[in-house]
Design a protein that fits this description.
By secondary structure, the chain is α+β, with helices and mostly antiparallel strands. It is built from nine helices and eight strands. The strands form two sheets. The chain has a five-stranded antiparallel beta sheet with strand order 4-3-2-1-5. Strands 6-8-7 form a three-stranded antiparallel beta sheet. Strand 7 and strand 8 form a beta hairpin. Helix 1 packs antiparallel against helix 2 and helix 6 crosses helix 8. The protein is elongated and about 90 Å long.
Length: about 290
């Protein structure tokens, strides 16, 4: 039986040596991945690529570095993992209980990557948060907030960090679905006694004047998207709908196309032009008109 003891003693010594060897190999691997990640980050930041492209490449480089480290780490520790295979069930249950939120965040990142809800640079809205996606990690997503409120399109100066677990349960509105252009709606309230036809004409005139510089380009782009994605793209021309908000009041809803990054500025230009040419919204005549008829 002494040969059996020699075998087991040899296994223990070999196992200890393997642990030290694997630990050293993992340390070296981590250092190499870190160095390569730093070199890649400096190369990306020092390039002359657009800011959005640099952010996307930096985020992808970080994700690749993490995945490479994890994959090679599993290869290094494969023998030890096989040794403890019988205890994996209990270990997995403990890990799930202890790292529930982390697992949900990783699952949310996987769901987002597979479903392609949004990508870096898109303008999205989830819950009460609306803004531009500036960073996508394995556990969190960072959004540069737009607001305040749902009708303002200015950056608030705040960056909101969301756990990726939110993509498992919360609906996501992507305003960049058409990549370059989007449709925006502006609500203009007025009284039913007002000259609705003149007000509608003033709204369409203001929208046509402001949107004229890119309207043809928007039409061509929507036609390309209709063919490429097999969607029924709406007309790019500004349109107005009426909605009765109360027995005495009416809302005119203006829908117009605009470049995604210029929605707020385009809205302000249209409103300022409309106010300069619009008739009264309360049904009362303006002072010059009343004097002329008097």
């Amino acid at each position: 039986m002494e040969w059996l003891r020699d075998v087991f003693s040899g296994i223990k010594i070999g196992s200890l040596d393997n642990l030290l060897h694997d630990a050293l190999a993992t340390l070296i691997l981590g250092l190499l991945v870190l160095v390569v990640r730093r070199i890649a980050g400096r190369a990306i930041s020092g390039s002359k690529l657009p800011l959005e492209m640099r952010r996307r490449l930096d985020s992808q480089a970080r994700a690749v570095a993490v995945l490479v480290f994890l994959a090679l780490g599993v290869v290094i520790w494969a023998a030890e993992l096989r040794t403890v295979a019988l205890s994996l069930v209990a270990f997995a249950a403990a890990v799930v209980l202890a790292l529930k939120e982390v697992i949900m965040c990783l699952s949310g990142a996987f769901v987002r990557g597979v479903s392609r809800h949004f990508k870096l640079g898109d303008r999205i809205e989830v819950g009460a948060v609306r803004g531009d996606v500036i960073d996508i990690g394995m556990l969190t997503t960072t959004i540069q907030e737009i607001g305040p409120g749902a009708t303002i399109h200015q950056h608030t100066g705040r960056a909101v960090v969301l756990p990726n677990s939110i993509w498992l349960a919360s609906p996501v509105a992507n305003f960049s679905h058409l990549d370059e252009y989007c449709f925006h709606v502006v609500t203009i309230p007025c009284e039913q006694a007002a000259d609705l036809a003149a007000i509608e004409a003033a709204i369409l005139s203001a929208a046509a004047e402001v949107c004229s510089e890119y309207l043809e380009e928007a039409r061509s782009y929507l036609e390309r998207m209709e063919r490429r994605r097999s969607i029924d793209a709406p007309s790019a021309d500004p349109r107005v709908w009426l909605r009765i908000s109360s027995p005495k009041d009416v809302e005119l809803l203006l829908r117009f196309p605009a470049p995604i990054r210029l929605v707020g500025k385009t809205e302000q230009k249209i409103l300022r032009r409309f106010l300069a040419i619009a008739p009264p919204l309360n049904g009362q005549r303006s002072a010059p008109a009343a004097a002329a008829q008097g």
